[in-house]
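We modelled the chain as a single entity of 439 amino acids. Its sequence is:
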Amino acid sequence: MSTTTSGRNGTWRNWGGNVVARPAREVTPASVEELAAAVRRAAEDGLKVKAVGTGHSFTAIAATDGVLIRPHLLTGIRDIDREAMTVTVEAGTPLKRLNVALAREGLSLTNMGDIMEQTVSGATSTGTHGTGRESASIAAQIKGLELVTADGSVLTCSAKENPEVFAAARIGLGALGVVTAITFAVEPVFLLAAREEPMPFDRVLAEFDQLWAENEHFEFYWFPHTGNTNTKRNNRSAGPEKPIGQLSGWFEDEFLSNGLFQAANWVGRAAPATIPAIARISSRALSARTYTDVPYKVYTSPRRVRFVEMEYAVPREALVDTLRELRAMVDRSDLRISFPVEVRTAPADDITLSTASGRDSAYVAVHMFKGTPYQAYFTAAERIFTAHEGRPHWGKVHTRDAAYFTEVYPRFGEFTALRDRLDPDRLFQNDYLRRVLGA
């Protein structure tokens, strides 16, 4: 049974704390039929509709003053097809629950992002990704989608059924309808050997092409104000399983990466002049380590220190120049950056508004501790990213609009034409979509 609450006093906030919305009402549907009814009723009442996941986007992509749909009763695995090697899952299922459930069935996604708090629909709709030489974003692993469109009807799509909707809706920004179920390609669970080690920034840039080519999954973190990075290589392994020990795992992942890091950021927020010294210590705190485990335990890690983030995808061949320019900008400014810059890659895919659509991409993510002024840093970084025809992550801070996206997405018009067809009255519109997709 769905619940509807009047949202007059209900305030919704995102995880990063930088977006606030006050919906007229909130609906928690317990079935696709209830969700469709809520969409039809909103249209009758002249209210806009947005579905919201766990609020892990830093943009106002899910904000509305109309009807806020919370999908957390639409959870769980609907179907496992071992012949087709697919799993159909309800849209409100958190990635962490999906990962655990799949592992229990001896299955796994091929690739995933570095956090697993988001719902499957929220993560895919905004283009959440990990890093991979051949394996792409979570959305690129979608084989089928079910969504409720503006007239309250349920539309299913795949490469064979409604293929033009499938091309766009895998990363649909919530603009084409409300996703109710997703069918993912899965494979038998496998082991990943992780190798994490510090490496000088200049060496990573000099050897980047080789590091990318030699590893299935390569990423690194550069600590501004230092010449240091922490690199991470993940490759498939025949075993045996050698997970991180409980104590060392707690020490590195909880105490250093979350507890001590949080304290260092508090100090840095209170006294920005201390940040370069803290960065030098932080960048050396994590020592080299290797371990082998099931994919979700290697790809993902806990993120308890709250931050605000901007991330752009640049053409992979532009990455080294982009990072050199970013470092030069930080060095000549009086900015004090306490969070590392995260660098990942993805192969080209065929999703209309994927940040990797039609081009091999590298991702550069800049972060600032929650509560510290981030505008100067993000503005300067964005200037560098856009000079390389960067495409911002749809769920992270950026200032781009439809005019810019027409330039950097060859198929942008294809998406907006489909939106005109599926949502001519803009039931799923909000201020963010008006800016990025045009009125």
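As a brief sanity check on the tokenised model: Residues 246-270 form the longest helix (25 residues). The chain has a mean pLDDT of 92.
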